Structure formats: structure tokens, C-alpha cells
Amino acid sequence: MNQRLFIGGTWTEPEGGHYDVVDPATEAAVGAAPEATRDQVDAACAAAREAFGPWSRTAPEERAAILARAADLIRERLVPYAGLAQAETGATTGTARAMQVGVAAARFRRYARVEPAEWPIAPQINEAGPMGKAGVVGALAVRQPVGVVACISSYNNPWANAAGKIAPALAMGNTVVVKPAPQDPLSVYRMAEVLEEAGAPPGVVNVISGASVEVGETLVASPDVDMVSFTGSTAVGRRIAEVCGRDMKRQLMELGGKGVALVFADADIASAVAGIGTTFSFYSGQICTAPTRVLAQRPVYDRLVEALTTYANRLPVGDPRDPQTVVGPVISAAHRERVESYVELARKEGARVVTGGDRPPHPQGFYVPPTLLADCTNDMRAAREEIFGPVVAVIPFEDEEEGIALANDTDYGLIDYVWTADIAKAFRTARRLRAGGVGINTVARNMEAPFGGFKKSGVGRDVGSYALHAYSEVQSIVWPG
């Protein structure tokens, strides 16, 4: 089926034609995605601008009801939607159902909860002066919608990532133009269908896509766009920020990561291995929060490398539709070659490839085996740059001070992890790590906790109530008491 664009409440034929969306596991075409032209991107932005006034004035309870209906519809269609997500992304069945479509439904449900948008501020007593007579001045802080939000989502999780932008943006009264990643845009069009069915007025949600970079460039530069919410690489985020800076557009950026797992000598090694091992299995390492850089204290270094090797070797690699599969393919042939090039570079730099590194014998599909690099140093490119694949680099350290220094010696700062039996040391270390989040003896997330990065890992925070702040401007209103 040839997918159409969704502009101003109308399913529109793309003037740029279509391109194939490829299943990473089979290399077969999943469907034909629409290629928007510059004029169609501009039309989507104009539709969102026109819809903004009425939608921003809609009662929050009415907006919430639409989000709740969308959540119900996604949940009802979980199995077919997960099948499409699996075909587009190569995710395993469990991941596609629970972590992609399931999380998307949960995010729409979360923002169907109306929260206060006004906060009283303590009255202030003013003395008489140039600004007026003496008196008491009252004040109120009010969250207002930003306007038209360009939502540019990542390929690793088209459902959860897009929903995490669209739902809080709509809840706050913004309108959106969504540009999904070119590799897997079809799922986001299903999301648009759901929102249309749930009652979103024309122009409130618009979806445009394209394999050409000009689609995203046109969207970001549009004078109708007030804010850009982007998830993706730091390199692309930097270019977007440059364009936004020229017009002072609000930004929310979730960018690259090189999460460190700091494993102290007193750690529960089995727990650490299970957490670090998610890099091998979860999205085949295509996730910015993965603990891809492991710092192991000398007394447990050899034991940790051995345990990680055993763990990696037990993970079945193959067809993500097979219930036994744990590690599916990466998104594309080009990305597979990129990941493989980092492994080869690590070899040349002196790292020891303990397991993995060689392409598995699958006739079709873009597979990379779980790969463990030992005896690394923190200056190796494989230890410093985001690989975005099932590759873990292990680096030894001597004491707490060196471990923290090595952990912070990176351009990134999204999520780090600490494993130790000493809780005081765990929290002491966490506070010294330059990262937006720190997991202590876990890789689990609290979905109400603020999410975002330090340094080149991003700008701003979202998730939970923090997302409502991210997609709003705060207005102060003052009056004489």
C-alpha cells in the first residue's frame, strides 16, 4: 500500500512520490512511504498554525478525552500495530508489543490526566516609589502553549518516541507537525489515524515524511514553527539548533549518549551483567540510554569480562519474529557497516574482541552479534563515540576518584549507571557524574522522572510533568492586591 501524507486533516498524495520501507530482518519492502515536497511541508506547518488558536482555547479536559480515546484505540490494536513496528524496525515481538506500542499507549494515557496550569505566587509588599503607590502585588504563574511544535522522532522506537512528543504537546494545547525517521515512518501514520479517529480536529496533528534531508530542513526553518522537539544524533541536533537559534525557537533535544556503567569491586556482578547486557539485546543496542562503556574496578575486571562474555554468547541472534530470538537486526545495511567499522577500528587501536565482531551467517537481514571489547582505554574512539549497536567496551579503573574522572571524560552525559553494595558510595558517586540521569544498581527507568542530557546529550527535560513544562511557556500575571 502507498502511504499518503496527513496534512490539515486530509490524507494527501505526496508530490515527491514514494520510497520503500525495508524490513531489517528480511530486506523485503514493508510498504511505500510518502516523500513530501517543500510546498507540502509548508502546507502542513500552515495547517498547524491555523489550528493552533482554536485548539489552544479548547478545554484541557476535552483535549485529555481525545488523548484517552487514542490510548484505548492503540491498546485495542496492539498486535497488528506491533507487527508493523516489528517489520519496520526489526524489534523482537516482546519489544515491539511492550516497549514500542505498549509504551505509546501508556504515554497517551498519561497525558490524558489534566494537571494544574496555574500556580499562585506569594504576594509581595511594595514600598511607594517611581513604580507607583505602596501596596500589595499579587502574582500568578501560568503555563501557556508554545504554538506549533515540529516533532522529529528517531528510528529506534517510532511508536514510543513519537507518542512521547505528541501527547504532552497536544495536552498543553500545542499543534504538531510530525516528521518520523525515514527508515520507519509507517507506524507514525497509524498514530495519526488513531488521533483522527479519537477526535483531534483538522490541522492539530500533521504528519509528513521523506528520505530527503530537505523535508526536515524545511520543517525546522518554517516561520510557522515555534518549537522543535528532536530525538536523534548530536550532529543533526547541532544543525537544528543553529537554525532554531536564528529565530529564537524553543528547543527540546534528546541527542546521543555513551552511557557509562561504573562497576565497583563490591558490586553484585550478576546484577551488573544483566543490566549491561541490555546493550546487547534491547533494540540490538540502538538506544541512547544503553550502558555501552563499562568501567570495571581492577579486583572484578577479569570476572566481569568473563561473565559478560558468557552472557553475550548465550543470546540467540536471528529472526525477531522467532519467540526464542533475543537479538534482532540493526536498522539498515549502512548502519550495520558503521557498527562493524567501529569494531574493526577498536581492534586496530588495541582493544581485544572477546566475543562477536564477525557477521553472523544469516542469508538476509542486517545482523550484528553481541560484541564485547576488552582492555580498552578511554581515548579509543570505540569508547568515546556513540556506536548505536550491540557493542560494549570495558575499561579498568583503580579507585573511586579515577572511576569518576574516567566516567566524566566524555562529550556525552545522558544516563550513567553505578553498581556497588555501598549505598552511600552509590549516591556520592551519582551526584558527581555529569549526566542527566543515574541508575543505581539498575537500568530501569521511572517514567515520571525528568529525562534529558548534560553536555552534547541534549537540551531540556521531558517525561511526566516535566514534558508539560517542556512544551509550554510560563507567563506571569500580576495585579494590585
TrEMBL record:
Keyword entries, A-Z: Oxidoreductase
Domain Aldehyde dehydrogenase: from-to ranges: 11-477
Keyword check for Oxidoreductase: yes
This protein's name: Aldehyde dehydrogenase family protein
Any Pfam family hit: Aldedh
Keyword DNA-binding applies: no
InterPro entries cross-referenced by the UniProt entry: Ald_DH/histidinol_DH, Ald_DH_C, Ald_DH_N, Aldehyde_DH_dom
